[in-house]
Amino acid sequence: MSIHLTYVLYINLVCMGAVTSHPAPSVANDPIPVSATILSPKGINSLSLGEWSRHKELILAKRDSLSYAILDRAKCKSDKAQQDLAVLQARFDKLEKVIAQIGILENSDVEYVLKGTSNDVGSTSWDVHKKCIILSVGSTANFIHELMHGWQYETGEIMFDARFNKCYLQDLEDEVEAYRAQYAFDPGSVTNLPAASTLRSMRGITPVWVSGLTNKDGEKTYAEHGRVRVNVNSSKAMLMLAYPQLQQQFITWQETWTMKNVPDMIYKQHPVADFD
Ligand SMILES: [Zn+2]
């Protein structure tokens, strides 16, 4: 069971300081990202396929078991059965989406490499040398969580630094999406996390709930994450709203700049449209 899941790559004053100390982009509206020159059809690293498939099979099996449970509960017309049915259906629908998202990553123009973690604290990062995305995962619930961050790269919700082990644009909504997806597979992997408030349902996973999660030292895990949803196209104003602690970093930006204007960023050139 997943004990604790965290997105260990976080935006902070140090990394944003490094970013904003770069020379201003020469062509503000026509950046030439590194990703445009290095990406070709890749998908899942061949050495990761075995472990990838193992997680995928477990997710497919869970989806099927939820399907059987839905059929079973549908036979009963009690209020309790109807409530159970709604919960099961929400988990089933979410796993259906996860399975589709797995397919998107399998056909991505960026390579994904799976690495195991011993403590079940996952992460998603860009390998600056091998130029691929590393998903460090433990349990299958953890795999789903980090898969969502890979998906967020595909949809332009997050980006990486081509030169440093840094990830940008994470926000609390990104974590809501990741925790809801892993909840659909294994509710206990989320309800057992140290949080400020008790979690009773998948819909209870909100930005406020995520902001109350703490690490083993009692520190807020996502204190530096964006307070509003941002992506690669978010304006300076939105970025300042999301990261008020970084106001001094953004204040020198031109109003029209986005994170795509920062040199040496790895981001999806043609983001995948999100779906439900
Ligand atoms: Zn996360």
Can you describe what's shown?
- The two termini are 27 Å apart.
- The chain has a 4-stranded mixed beta sheet. A 3-stranded antiparallel beta sheet has the order 6-5-7, with no helix packed on it.
- It is of the alpha/beta class.
- It contains 10 helices and 7 strands.
- The N terminus is likely disordered.
Question: Domains counted in the coordinates: how many?
Answer: 1
Number of strand elements: 7
Give a short account of the largest sheet. 4 strands, mixed
Order of helices and strands: HHEHHEEEHEEHHHHHE
Could you estimate the helical fraction of the residues in percent? Answer: 40-55%
Radius of gyration: 19 Å
Distance between the termini: 27 Å
Quaternary organisation of the protein chains: single chain
Structural class: alpha/beta
Strand order of the largest sheet: 1-2-4-3
Our estimate of the beta-strand percent is 5-15%
Q: Kindly report the average pLDDT value.
A: 87
Catalogue the ligands.
zinc ion
Poorly predicted regions are 1-39
Shape: globular
Number of DSSP helical runs: 10
In brief:
With 276 residues, the chain is α/β, with parallel strands linked by helices. Helix content is 42%, strand content 9%. It is built from 10 helices and 7 strands.
Write the layout of secondary structure elements.
Layout lengths: L12 H8 L14 H4 L4 E2 L4 H26 L4 H28 L4 E6 L6 E5 L4 E6 L2 H15 L4 E3 L5 E2 L3 H14 L2 H4 L15 H5 L24 H7 L4 H4 L14 E2 L10
Parallel strand pairs: 1-2, 2-4
Antiparallel strand pairs: 3-4, 5-6, 5-7
Helix pairs in contact: 3-4, 4-5, 4-6, 5-6
